[in-house]
Amino acid sequence: MSAFLLLLLAPLFTGSLKWLKARLQNRQGPDPLYDYKNLLKLWRKVWIRPQGSSPLFLLAPVVGLLSTGLAAVFLPLLPGISFAGDFLVLIYLLNLGRFLQVLAALDTGSAFGGQGSYRESLVSVLAEPGSVLALGAVGLASGSLSLAAFSPLSPQNALVYTLVLVALTLALLAEGARMPVDDPTTHLELTMIHEAQLLDHSGPLLALYELSAGMKILVYIGLIALLLPFGGLSFPAALLLAWLALGYLETYGVKLRYLRLPDLMSYNTLSGILAVLGVVLRFRI
């Protein structure tokens, strides 16, 4: 199933991405398999529960990984579940994990957890409408609202699909906490978004969060792959392009100021709206 495939690939993708960025900076960098070793190390450690926190603190990482895995099941990379409107279930399963992660960070009562939760919630609100509109536009253009029936890019739908790819790419950067939305390597707490919520987590709990974050990136890459006209090679091609693009972007790019994120993510929503309008107007003509 797609969930097991992404579960196995997620540490390889994030670990090799760190290796690529190190090589672009003329450093040796970690082994591409480093994230597998890091997850195993975290799993062997003892987790610490902050004083005064509720069982939600322990439940959130587990539900986060399970919801991301269930979302991956809907990707037609391998035989899985398919029905009309399943892309909506996929989006909301991803956001269920985020919702509980935000609650768990608030549950600790720490200042940085509250700050990260607020910022993460804003990013989610900015990214979700464009993603839903973009996938809805593809469903309308394909004549089916099921991910398994989405038609790939062709000369007839090139403009609409270009807008959809823009929206999904921006959503990947926002949902995956990558540059220029967030800096996954920062050590400055005041600039953190995603990582600020994880400062109180350790051991297996942190490992679950790291694994679900990597899987979420691959889910969005899988959505982009559905639109590529390469048949069975679409997902490997999208994976390679995303790997190279993220490596170069996070090496030579800069993180946007937090107050500028709405400006960036407005292009996500605008692209989704224009994609839907393009499909509707084409049908009416």
TrEMBL record:
<feature type="transmembrane region" description="Helical">
    <location>
        <begin position="56"/>
        <end position="78"/>
    </location>
</feature>
<protein>
    <submittedName>
        <fullName>Hydrogenase-4 component C</fullName>
        <ecNumber>1.-.-.-</ecNumber>
    </submittedName>
</protein>
<dbReference type="GO" id="GO:0005886">
    <property type="term" value="C:plasma membrane"/>
</dbReference>
<feature type="transmembrane region" description="Helical">
    <location>
        <begin position="264"/>
        <end position="283"/>
    </location>
</feature>
<dbReference type="InterPro" id="IPR001694">
    <property type="entry name" value="NADH_UbQ_OxRdtase_su1/FPO"/>
</dbReference>
<dbReference type="InterPro" id="IPR052561">
    <property type="entry name" value="ComplexI_Subunit1"/>
</dbReference>
<keyword id="KW-1133">Transmembrane helix</keyword>
<feature type="transmembrane region" description="Helical">
    <location>
        <begin position="217"/>
        <end position="244"/>
    </location>
</feature>
<dbReference type="GO" id="GO:0016491">
    <property type="term" value="F:oxidoreductase activity"/>
</dbReference>
<feature type="transmembrane region" description="Helical">
    <location>
        <begin position="132"/>
        <end position="151"/>
    </location>
</feature>
<keyword id="KW-0472">Membrane</keyword>
<feature type="transmembrane region" description="Helical">
    <location>
        <begin position="158"/>
        <end position="174"/>
    </location>
</feature>
<dbReference type="Pfam" id="PF00146">
    <property type="entry name" value="NADHdh"/>
</dbReference>
<keyword id="KW-0560">Oxidoreductase</keyword>
<keyword id="KW-0812">Transmembrane</keyword>
